[in-house]
Write a structure and sequence with these properties.
With 313 residues, the chain is of the alpha/beta class. Helices cover 53% and strands 10% of the residues. Strands 3-2-4-1-5-6 form a six-stranded parallel beta sheet, with helices on both faces. Helix 2 links the parallel strand 2 and strand 3.
Length: 313
């Protein structure tokens, strides 16, 4: 349970392309804050264009943490994110500044705020069997099978997320328990007064337009060449978390001749819309968050006013 004596921390959440990064910098300038990225793709070096990574100029001198900390060949777990974020939040607070956590990886926000379940250790034999089943049956059939044994996890995991589908199956086969059981009683409060802000358009059509515009902007500014450089390294594959990032896997497939450029653009935009839809699903659970509208004229002033009220309570 949060206490009024706890130091403040701001969670700035929202769907992709909603304007979170720019608002975070403005808040950091106004509140003497530092930014912690809550994004599973921004951690990777050399993946700048397709992740819409804020440039040094856009950061305006504000420290941005958990950006460019890994090579694309490396993995970054939710547990690693939680541990690193908690350490950074403590350091930022000790400096007399406010941690501002911004991003769209909602699983990270949830793990940071509510803790992590202790899951069974991965079994390579079971994982190999599941890999074979994924190839022969397909992700949709595997997702349907998961719904039969663990409907709660199946409802939470998207059919287009084979990695998490397989992990849920793996946990069940190792332990005989559905994954949902492990998450049911996890509550590890962190010693901060969390102020939650959500920034998003009121009209989903506006977000779709922003997503399409940003994807085309990425292509115009070297996104294909960025992915080509990743391919030319020779040590990366489409199975790695970095390459599975939205946009990257579509351009990767295009460069491997799986479809033409027009199809790649369509698939990239659709995949980003699907990501936004999943983010909205998570965000609807944040009933204690203040919602702000993307593009509203007084966005910064409104955010600061809500933060002041929360701090004065």
């Amino acid at each position: 349970m949060q206490k009024t004596s706890d130091p403040p921390a701001i969670f700035l959440m929202g769907p992709t392309a909603s304007g979170k990064s720019a608002l975070a910098v403005q808040l950091a300038l106004a509140l003497s804050g530092e930014i912690i990225s809550v994004d599973s793709a921004l951690v990777y070096r050399g993946m700048d264009i397709g992740t819409a990574k804020p440039t040094l100029a856009e950061r305006q001198g504000i420290p941005h943490h958990l950006i460019d900390i890994l090579d694309p060949a490396e993995a970054f777990s939710t547990g690693q994110f939680r541990n690193k974020s908690l350490a950074l939040m403590a350091e930022i607070t000790q400096r007399g500044r406010i941690p501002i956590l911004v991003g769209g990886t909602m699983l990270y926000f949830n793990a940071l705020n509510n803790g992590l379940a202790v899951l069974p250790v991965a079994d390579p034999v079971i994982r190999a069997k599941l890999d074979a089943e994924l190839k022969t049956l397909g992700k949709e059939a595997l997702h349907q099978r998961l719904a039969n044994i663990d409907p709660e996890s199946a409802a939470r995991i998207h059919p287009n997320d084979p990695q998490r589908i397989q992990r849920a199956f793996e946990v069940y086969e190792i332990s005989g328990k559905p994954l949902a059981i492990y998450f049911a009683d996890v509550q590890q409060a962190i010693p901060y007064r969390i102020i939650k802000l959500v920034v998003a358009p009121n009209d989903r059509k506006i977000l779709h337009e922003l997503i399409a515009k940003r994807f085309m902007h990425m292509l115009d500014h070297g996104f294909i060449e960025e992915v080509e450089a990743l391919i030319n390294r020779g040590d990366l594959s489409e199975k790695m978390p970095s390459i599975r990032a939205v946009g990257y896997r579509q351009v990767w497939s295009y460069l491997h001749g799986e479809y033409d450029k027009t199809t790649m653009v369509e698939k990239g935009i659709v995949a980003t819309r699907q990501l936004a839809k999943r983010q909205f699903t998570w965000l609807r659970r944040e009933i204690d968050a203040i919602t702000l509208e993307t593009g509203q004229a007084d966005l910064l002033e409104s955010a600061l006013a809500h933060i002041k009220i929360s701090l004065d309570d």
